[in-house]
From TrEMBL:
Family named by the database record: Belongs to the diacylglycerol/lipid kinase family.
Domain of life: Bacteria
InterPro entries: ATP-NAD_kinase_N, Diacylglycerol/lipid_kinase, Diacylglycerol_kinase_cat_dom, Lipid_Phosphate_FormReg, NAD/diacylglycerol_kinase_sf, YegS/DAGK_C
Residues covered by the DAGKc domain: 1-131
Organism: Carnobacterium antarcticum
UniProt keyword list: ATP-binding, Kinase, Lipid biosynthesis, Lipid metabolism, Magnesium, Metal-binding, Nucleotide-binding, Phospholipid biosynthesis, Phospholipid metabolism, Transferase
Protein's recorded name: Diacylglycerol/lipid kinase family protein
Protein EC: 2.7.1.-
Gene3D superfamilies named in the record: 2.60.200.40, Probable inorganic polyphosphate/atp-NAD kinase, domain 1 (3.40.50.10330)
Required cofactor(s): Mg(2+)
Keyword Nucleotide-binding included in the entry's annotation: yes
UniProt-recorded Gene Ontology molecular function terms: kinase activity
Alphabetical list of PROSITE patterns matching this protein: DAGK
Amino acid sequence: MSLAVLIINPSSGNEEGEQYALNAQATLEKMFDKLIVKKTEKAGDAKRFANEAAKDRVEAVFVMGGDGTINECVNGIAGEAYRPDFGFIPMGTANDLGHALGIPMDPAEAIAMLPTAAKCKIDVGKVNDDYFIDVIAIGSIPEAVQNVSTEQKTKLGFFAYILEGLKAAKKNKSYSFKLTLDEKTFSQEAELVLVALTNSVGGFSSLLPEAKADDGYLHLVLLKKTSLLKKLPLLLKLLKGETNDTRDVLYERFKTGQVAVSKKEKLGTNIDGDPGDDLPLTLEVLASHITVFVPS
């Protein structure tokens, strides 16, 4: 008997999650002999539900939610020896993994895709003792973006993040980073460090044109300390993936690494859109680690 679990975050997608739940449930009940539906009420629920599903060896886990809820489910699955197939219906603000895999951003279309979906294996990033599938952001801009309120997100969507990011960029604050990427260790003064798994970062699908969800690498972009006059056009080029001709942006791809601050100062991180561990971070890519449903 085939068994699947559907995890729903009712608060994702401008409070519209409930509207699509019945449609998703009806679709999945036709695909599997039995479907268990679970709704999150607090942080950590999605991770716990997904982990229980993996331990019960269900065939598939599906989630309706934003990047944070998807991250929780991956964290519930990725550490297990048996990992169910994974499907998701994007309901949040950026939905980077969905963009990278070609999954429709319209929830109704994403649900309609499932009965004919194909499957593919994708990489998962490991950061300290946790996992991520999108991006780690470090620096003054991510610090500011973390302060975006739920009310701002509901009213302005992704534009709320842009506003806070631009405010932070004007302050010109930088940090002295020490990085180890595979066998290479170096220090660099920088304002922003991104470590991503796919080409889509923060809703911008051109930021890392070289990155693919199944290429077996983590991708690092570092914005060096520069003047405000140079920074704003540089940020625009960065968002378009047009940084090959500038010395102010560093790009590296790697499989294992560490990111730390050289000075003894506390610096937090943003992991898949939510607050993560303070530095230092130990990073690793887990190649082809989970199987996901994608458009056929």
